[in-house]
Structure prediction request, 635 residues.
Amino acid sequence: MSDAERALTLPPRWSRAASSWREAVGTLAVVARRDRFALAGIIIYVAFFAIALLAPVVAPHDPQELEYLPNGDVAANLPPSLAHPMGTTNLGRDIFSQLLYGSRAALMVGFVAALGVVILGTLVGLLAGYYGGWVDTVLMRLADVAFGVPFLPMAIVLVAFLGPSIWNVVLVMTLLLWRDTGRVIRAQVLSLRERSYVEAARVLGASHTRTMFVHIAPNVLPLSFLYGSLAIGWAILTEASISFLGFGDPNVISWGYMLQDAYNSQALARQAFHWFVPPGVCIMLAVMAGFFISRGYEELLFPRLRRR
Amino acid sequence: MKRLAFVLSRLGQTALVLLVVATMLFLIFRLMPGNPLVAYLDPTFTEDMERTLRAQFGLDKPLHVQYAFFLRNAVRGEFGNSFFTREPVDEVIWNVLPNTLLLTLCALLLAYAVGIAGGALLAARRGTWVEHLGIPAVLATRAAPEFWVGMLALAIFSFSLQWFPLGGATSPGSVFTSNWARVLSMDFLRHLALPALTLALYLQGLPTLLMRNSMLEVMDEDFITFARMRGLPERTVVLRHAARNALLPVVTAFALGIGYSIGGNVIIETVFSWPGLGRTLVRAVAAKDYPVAQAAFLMIAAVMIFMNFVADLFYSLLDPRVSYERR
Prediction:
């Protein structure tokens, strides 16, 4: 691991917040209780989830459907009104409905990619740190390569290669973002495996797998969650960027897609702020929520950063 | 001697990573669906002509031969001609590289100047309204998509107020005697301002938060308590003792930041039609212009990997606690 990068990742001293799987999962409740920001982040996600689930019920129009005026003309470029709370696009689509449906793409990409990052990163970190030797060398050289890959350019090239589907975006994000989690977890596992309770477990006859997953994993899991909640934000941002650059799934309405549509349709020149401000605000809220939750974890795991 | 061995081993690692990334890139572009000769297709195109063309580009050779050619040419800096404009690719790249470097450096310098001061302030005012408002504000700048901030800036400052141009690096039709004359012209600076400020707004988040966290760590150290006990004014303690020692991770981040933001510039350059490396890459990938896309990507990756190496050296020079032993 590169020293420079390690210096950026985490303070050297940290406190374990969990020693069993149940406790590890429970840290989310602990974080929510202790940190108002983290609670706000969780509430934002709950709200977005509700919107995503209820989109077909709440949305006043079909997001892809062209709307027409009573006289038969396409209802293009309408300013906000009661019928269209955020106006319409240059092709006469209802912006508010698109915004509601956009939450689906964002949440799906964000949470599935974050789950992938947590699973892959934790697994790599556990294996590398626990076994050491050539396993460690191979996995960490892989991480070196992943760190050497320019993130957004690689995401664009890979999505262009694999085809523009939302699942490919998720896959690419997982493949590119596991590296941070993997390295940090490895470093912690290196020190954990020397602890006497791990030795005790081994002496009592626990297998390698059991030692790794029952005795070590829960200790590092809250740390994985910290990186996972950050990954939600990065994944949502990256999906938006990929869509904005025109490499996204053309059949899925996402906030990034809406912004690309607005940018390419001269919405800036037309000063159609009602078109391109709302999707950006939604992206920002969703990403911030991830940051807030990760900050809660940070304060839990690194007490030095805590308020005195 | 130890230091030399350290530098050499890191250099070897760096070269290896670059080679692996280049190989991945080669495979991705070779295995990509679609005919790379699509740019030449027209109704008069016969199969014979296609075969000749394939041979001309070396696309008829087996993969490993193509790979050997690719590596040899990459080392020489030869990437062939663009499928579309037929310009030599190295010329395309060298033309846009200075624009990208200038944009990145201006934005980074601005971002780190603001970030170091802001981070130190946030740490010194721990627990006050400065922190309560400051942290969410910084997080908001990190969470806002750059291209969206760029769109807002364009809509407000360019389209509405007309303070800045709408995009590009120079006004259409302007002629300059040399590259230096171009870069130092008012026209260029006016074009640079908005993308650089947008990028800086995004980039300042990392140094601000790093500086704050690093300051809080340092403020806990014994030598700070000692400085306070000596009766030094708080200002001196914060600025002379804490801030100086807290700078290490921030300085390291700057070197890493050059690499990372060159990769991330893709999106800012596209929004502002800034003729740089990132925009070249996006357009080449979209148009399946493989030679240009490969070269642009490799250039971005090379700069990034090299800056990671520089950051490592920096770090080991600045922090005597870092040993040269391999872990």
About this structure: Residues 2-76 of chain B form one domain. Chain B has two domains: 2-76, 89-318.
